[in-house]
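Entry for cytidine-5'-diphosphate complex. Fields follow.
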Amino acid sequence: MSERFTIAIDGPAAAGKGSISRAVAAHYGFAHLDTGLLYRAVGAKVLLGMAPEEAALTLRAEDLEASELRSPEVAQAASRVAVLPAVRAALLDFQRSFARRAGGAVLDGRDIGTVICPEAEAKLFVTASAEVRAKRRHAELAAAGETSSLAQVHADVLERDARDSGRADAPLKPAADAVTLDTSAMTLEAAIAAAIEIIDARRGGSGGA
Ligand code: CDP
């Protein structure tokens, strides 16, 4: 299959982009890239003492598999390195070629529809209230054995949103042609169905690949 079709899924911290993106990619048979993992892997190396640009330039596939990448400390470190233009520049080509790979691609992050792939055929901005996002992330972290309180997770989400939206380079914001999906009152299944409906409309109603 040689179809080129890019689905860009952006949104604030813990909005459910990852779960929706994985399900959407499986539905269409597309490859999926969680671009947040790239920044998390760079942040994790910086926590170990490496300089941010060097960490970004030397990133390898196996760096994306470390289990600690999901921790709140690494999430904060990711958002701190993500303000640096040299870090973003080092990660750009990999993300762009992934987006245009043959067979279709789903990328989720903050700047996919605005900077990485402005020509993406379908763009979603997935959001939810900060309270709902904090509750979902708190439940996820608790299931993974993390002990952060709900109040800490809520503060972390708000801090990252402010840093991600306020930075000069590739700030978090919906692309002008993105469809916003507010999942505050939706189950995950309903959010996935809504995302597929939006994407099908962009695919001319052709449904799954
Ligand atoms: O899963 P969650 O939404 O909490 O975060 P993530 O998608 O794993 O992203 C972690 C951090 O990486 C974000 O807070 C952003 O600062 C940064 N990021 C970015 O700047 N650009 C992207 N395309 C993806 C993530």
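NOTE: The pocket of cytidine-5'-diphosphate is lined by residues 13-14, 18, 35-36, 39-40, 75, 78-79, 82, 109-111, 160, 164 (CB under 6 Å).
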